[in-house]
Every structure is written in structure tokens, then in C-alpha cells.
Amino acid sequence: MITITNVSKWYGKVQVLNNCSANVAKGEVVVVCGPSGSGKSTLIKCVNGLEPFEQGIITVDGISVGDPDTNLPKLRARIGMVFQHFELFPHLSVMDNLTLAQVKVLGRDPKSAAEKGMKLLERVGLNAHAAKYPGQLSGGQQQRVAIARALAMDPIAMLFDEPTSALDPEMINEVLDVMIRLAKDGMTMIVVTHEMGFARKVANRVVFMDRGEIVEDAPTADFFGKPRSERAQLFLSKILQH
Amino acid sequence: MSYNWNWGIFFQLSPDGTHTYLQLLLFGTGWTLATSLLAWAIALSVGAVVGVIRTSPLPWLVRFGNAYVELFRNIPLLVQMFLWYFVLPELMPQAIGDWLKQATNASFYNAVICLGLYTSARVAEQVKAGILSLRSGQRMAGLAIGLTLPQTYRYILLPMAFRIILPPLSSEFLNIIKNSSVALTIGLIELTAAARSMSEFSFQVFEAFTAATLIYIVINIIVVNGMRWLEGRVAVPGFISMGKPAAAH
Amino acid sequence: MFSNIDWNVIIRSLPYLFLDGMRFTIMLTLMATAGGIVIGTLLALARLSNIPGLSHVAGAYVNLIRSMPLVLVIFWFFFLVPYIGQWLTGASRPIQVGAFLSALVTFTLFEAAYFCEIMRAGIQSIPRGQVQAAQALGMTYWTSMKDIILPQAFRNMLPVLLTQTIILFQDTSLVYVISVTDFLGAASKVAQRDGRLVEMYLFAAIVYFVISLAASYGVRRLQRRIAIIR
Question: Is A107 helix (H, G, I), strand (E, B) or coil?
Fold first, then answer.
């Protein structure tokens, strides 16, 4: 479903992605981890074209992301993205956050958009908050609304960029629970995260990045059991300590 | 003091025979407000466009927007008024130039356009600052759900940017009202001009200027309170600042 | 359209324009800036002080000035300064004040209100710890202000103060309304005497543009250097 082939990217003279290749099949959950600065956020933002890349090919459901002829907004409507800082639209109510893109991009009528929004809010446990504004919600609640907002577009795949890194510890689980249910329902997911517990539970594969390169790409059990590269071992030992 | 005070002067007839001095001042106030409101409409619409293009991803658009702002910011307002009123008609083909010079209320239209464009450069600065103060994630989130860039500006970035810049924008509106007085040099009989003319005909200089000062103060108070009401009306519940991630509580 | 332009009029009047007009403009700008910053700083201290009534008086002055158009203030002082001179010197009639002095008083007192707000923001941005450290060392209010707070506030606000000076430089053109010969006034006189409005006003616009642009670039470079040092 998503193919990343030999992707390289530079910011000016600095190379931030170096010949990255990976594939994500339909229904697969892939966790991308690595030290900060490794390029994992950059890579995931290349998948839906939010970041341009100079070399390589990325395709989503057969459509090439880097092709200048591709209709990017239309493609992005089919991919859901969840951000580290939630990025709900603060001047719109929760319900409006969910229906804005449905109406403006997919052309759904406001009534059915609102119904869908309500159903998704129930799915993430927040139907009581539909009329509230993002500023009135906790971080965990905002992130769950953000997930619902992405799901409202009926995406074929979901991208998560460190979805729990900005949350206080007691709220991480409520968001991870939603993501775990999503994975079990068969959604194709790429998740950049440090939450190794999540990875062990639902990820099919783990991709380890360091300094712009994909260092290891292995099934979950193998990654945690016998990581092949020394850098991955070092990273795991640091992260699994607390 | 060898000055004779006469506060009753306001109710005496002015040299034109039909209106009291007070009425002349009120006519002047009317011209001040009309000029200011029309100029503000121009300043907001043009300024918003220029401010937006200065944040666009196209380098030549950004440079054009920057040049526009620099042009209007580095020439004194009075000089700009002279350029519009005296120089522009001379640079036009003869027929258009003559028509411009003879139009009734020429000084009014010149004042409105000059003031509007002058202020639009300052509004553009505010709009650009407002948009840039938003977290970059907002733009990305808009694009990520499939909105085009213009749609993202329209539904996500500009609504928040305008709320953020309401205070400096209301300052700019007050500035337009004050700057409208510069138009007296091209013949617009706005409030300050009316006070000046009253002081010249009646010799009651300080009464005239006191009245003008009081009227400007009253306009100020009305605008400041109006803006405060507007800020309360459009405030986003729970909004603290876009600079940091929303508080996790 | 451009067939009738006579650029010679500009060249012929350059000495008058710059030696008389621009000299007036620059002297007025520099002196009003200096005076305005001094008085503005005093006003800021007054607004921030605890002396009963003082902050209200200072605040009232600043708010009054800031709600008035500069043109109106120019007229006010044009008529008022002779009477003030009479009152100050006890003369029997209002004193004849020269154009430069009237303009200087006007711009100094007008800009003081704006410099006051800038310095007030600067002083308030100094962390309270600085004041407390100065007091802990036994410094009086004036010493801590003079040696600790104001130097820092001034340095922090330098770019804003300089930008306000550039605005002042452009605002001086408004002395036109009392027929004073600054740079614009000089250009205007030549324009009307020789019937060359287009050339003179365009030239005036270009000169103001170049000076203001260069000055604001200078301020931006200064801002960058200060940022690095901090």
C-alpha cells in the first residue's frame, strides 16, 4: 500500500534522509523509532507530501507522492495524519473540527458529516464534548479528537507523528488504547513513537532510524528479541530502562 | 493672559451665514469619519492580501509584498498625499489628468486612496506577523486533511491570525483617524481643518482647538471600547496562546 | 507624459534643498529625539512610580497626546508657545517664538508620549530580580534606576527607539502646515516658484525613501548583532 524507495532529502547542504526504503502492506502496523534527529518525523511527513524530497519515490496506493502531476490535496484526503501537538483548529468547535474537511474537501452534506463526526466521537469516547472548543479539553482529549478528525475522512492509511510525546504520562494510555483498537480493526498505520509497549502489542514490524538512515527493519519479535545492529541495541537498552 | 475667552463662540454664526461654528466642526467630524472608514476598508482588504502573499511559498510574491510595504512605509504620509493629488494628474494623459483635477471632492477621494494604501502596508505587517505567530503545525494539519493551501489560509490560518492581531489592528484604525488630518493640506475640510478655519475667522483659537481635541478624544474612547467589545465577541473559549501546545490538565 | 520634465530644477535647487531644508529636518529630528527620550523616560518613571497622583497625571498626558493627530498638536503649540513664553518670562504680551523653537517644543513633547510607552515596556521587561539585587546591595531607587535598570532597558529597546526616530524623521514633514521650511517645505517652495510640482515632489519622495530605507536597514542589522551578543 505504501512504498518508500531510495528516498533522500536535504535541507540546504545538510542531508536529513539518506537512501531510505521501506514498504507497508495493507493492514500492517509499522512503528518507526530512533533517537531524536534521526529523521523519522521528516520521513513520515514525506509520505503525505507535507515535506518535499529530492531523490527517490514514494507511492501510496499506487499514486506517486513526488510526481508534480499528482493532485496532492486529493491524495492527502485519503491519508490520515495525527500530529505531536494535536493541531486541532482552536477557533472551531470539536464538531466543526471533524466536519470541516468532510464538507469542504469530500463534499459531504453537513448533516451526514455531523452524524459521522458524532459516531467517531463515540468511538473515541468523547461524544459529550462535541460542542466544546479545543482550548477547553485536556491534551489526551484533544489528541483523541485529532484521531477522530483524521478518521472522519475514511482514510486508507493513518500516519502518527509522535502522538503521545506531548502528553502528560497519565493521559498517554487513553490515546494508545484508541490506537490499539484502530490497529486491531485492520487500519494500515505508520507510527513514529517511543512507546515500545505499544509496538510490542500491535506492531507487525519495527523500523529503526538513526542519522537519516533506516538501520533496521524487522518483524517486532525479532527486533526486540535479537536486534542485529549495535545502534539499535544501544537505543533499545536506553529506552527500555524506565 | 491677554487672550479673551469666549466659549459662546460655538453658537455664533460662521462667515458663511447659515451655519454655526459648532455645525462647521461637526461637518468636519463627518468628513473625518467618512474618510477614515473608507480608507480603513481599503487598508484592511489590500493589507490582508499583501500580508498573506508575504507568507506564501512563492519567493517572487514574497519579494513583491515586501517591496510594496517598504514603498509605503518609507515615504512620509504628507509627501504621499502630494504625489496623489498634485503629481498623479500630471503624469496621466491630458484628458484624464484634467478630469482628475476638476472632480468634485477630489481631495476626499485622494485622501481616501492615499490613506488607505498607506495604512494597508502597516496592516500587511500585522497580518504577516499574525500568521507567522501560529504554530507551523496548523498549516500542516490543514494540508494533511486535504485542504488546498488557499483553503487552509481561509478556514484555518486567517481566522486565528485576525483574532491574534485585533489589538494592533485597532491601533491602526485609530492611526487612520488621526492621519486623516494630514488631508487638510490638500484641501479636505475635515475636523482639524474646520477647527483651524474657525480659529482664523473668529480669533477664538483655543476654544476651537479644545473642541477639536475633545471630539478626537471622544472618537478614541468609542473606538477603543468598540474594539474591546469585538475582541470579547470573537474570543475563542479556552484559548491562551498558539505558541505553546495546549496545556495538558 | 515625461516630455515636459525639467530635471535641472532639481539640480539648481540642491544647495537650498539640502543646506536649508534637510539641515532643518535633521536638526529637528535629532534634537526632538534626544529631548523626547529624556522626557519620555521621566514620564515612564512617573507612570511606574508609587507617588500618589503622579502616575495618573503622567498617564493622562500620554493618553491625551496619543489620541490627538500630530497636525492638531502642531497647531496647539504654534499658538500656545508664545503665551507660555509670556507666562514664563512675565512679559506683557505673548512672546514671538521662532519657527524652529516652536517646532522643537512641539515634536519633543509629542514624541515624549510615544517614547514614554517604549521605555515603560522596556523597564517592565527587566526581571524583578534585577531590582531586588540592586536593593539588596543597598542602592537607592535613583541609583538602581540610573545604573542598573535604565541602561538595560535602553539597550533592549534600542531598535524600537531607533524605529520611532525614523518615524519622527518622516513626521517632521508636517511642519508644512505652519509654513516652516524643512526639506519638504523647501521642495514645495521651489515647486511653486518654478511651477515644477512633479519634479520636486517626486524628488522629495525619493530622498525621504532612500534615507528611511537605509536607516531601517541599519536598525535591522543592529538588531541582529544585538541578538547574537545576547
Answer: coil
